[in-house]
Every structure is written in C-alpha cells, then in structure tokens.
C-alpha cells in the first residue's frame, strides 16, 4: 500500500507544483509503466507492507547503493500485483540540495542502479508499454 507525500524544502516550506500525483493502478504492466516514466512515484516513506510479504520479497537488495525502494516496489508489483492506495497525504518529503540521493545522481550510481533494476523487470515494463499502445 502507498499514499501521497508533500515535497518541502530544507526550511519546511511546501514546494508548490513539485508533487507527483499518485493514484490507484489496477494493472501490473500499467503500474510498472507509470512508475518507470515517473508519472507515478510511490514514495518509500508512505509504503506499508505486511511483515510476511516483505520477508517473502527478501527485503532491500543490499547490492544496490541506491534505488533499493524502486527495486522493492517493482518486486512487490511483480509478485503480489498492484498495491493498495490511500488518497491522503501521510508524509512530508524533504528535497535536499545535498545528500545520498543527490550524490548518487552526480556520481552516476543512480543511473546505473536504475538501469539494473529496469533490466530485472523488463517483462513488466514491456507489458505496460504494450498496453499503453493498445489503449
């Protein structure tokens, strides 16, 4: 299950227009397509898993230096299908100018790990792309 989060700056001010509109998605392939195109980004801060399901998924992939949430979300989608969605704001997401996330973008690690994850789930992404062209 996931929900919405508001983006704020380092001083806690709401960043108008920078939010991603999340929603319920009923189809595996369509969810994967929305996710990889950044049209829907389930925020890790809003994710809720049953403990047994998280253990079945194997938890975080520690071989990834970043994008672990991206990988976990796609593994969950592949294994269990589309997640539930609560159309409420349940977290604040602080946008930072520096930090592990930004550093991984600058170093190229983010792009490399994102590509690794996309290759792992190419079957889901391809299904979503095929569905989108037939709509």
Please name the defining characteristics of this protein.
two-stranded parallel sheet, 135 residues, 6 helices, globular
Task: Describe the overall structure.
The radius of gyration is 15 Å and the shape is globular. The mean pLDDT is 85. The protein has six helices and two strands. It has 135 residues and is an alpha+beta fold. Helix 1 packs across helix 6. It has one domain.
Give a summary of the structure in a few sentences.
With 135 residues, this protein is of the alpha+beta class. It contains six helices and two strands.
Strand order of the largest sheet: 1-2
Q: Helix tally? A: 6
Structural class: alpha+beta
Mean pLDDT: 85
Spans of at least 5 consecutive residues with low confidence: none
Distance between the termini: 26 Å
Helix/strand order, N-terminal first: EHHHEHHH
Total count of domains: 1
Fraction of helical residues: 40-55%
Total strand segments? 2
Gyration radius (Cα, Å) is: 15 Å
Largest sheet: 2 strands, parallel
Global shape: globular
Quaternary state of this entry equals single chain
């Amino acid at each position: 299950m996931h929900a919405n989060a508001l983006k704020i700056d380092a001083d806690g001010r709401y960043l108008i227009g920078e939010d991603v509109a999340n929603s319920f998605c009923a189809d595996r392939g369509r969810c994967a397509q929305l996710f990889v195109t950044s049209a829907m980004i389930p925020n890790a801060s809003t994710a809720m898993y049953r403990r047994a399901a998280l253990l079945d998924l194997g938890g975080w992939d520690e071989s990834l230096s970043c994008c672990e949430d991206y990988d976990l979300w796609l593994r969950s989608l592949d294994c269990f299908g589309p997640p539930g969605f609560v159309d409420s704001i349940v977290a604040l997401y602080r946008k930072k100018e520096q930090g592990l996330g930004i550093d991984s973008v600058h170093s190229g690690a983010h792009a490399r790990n994102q590509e690794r994850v996309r290759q792992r789930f190419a079957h889901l992404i391809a299904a979503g792309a095929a569905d989108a062209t037939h709509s």
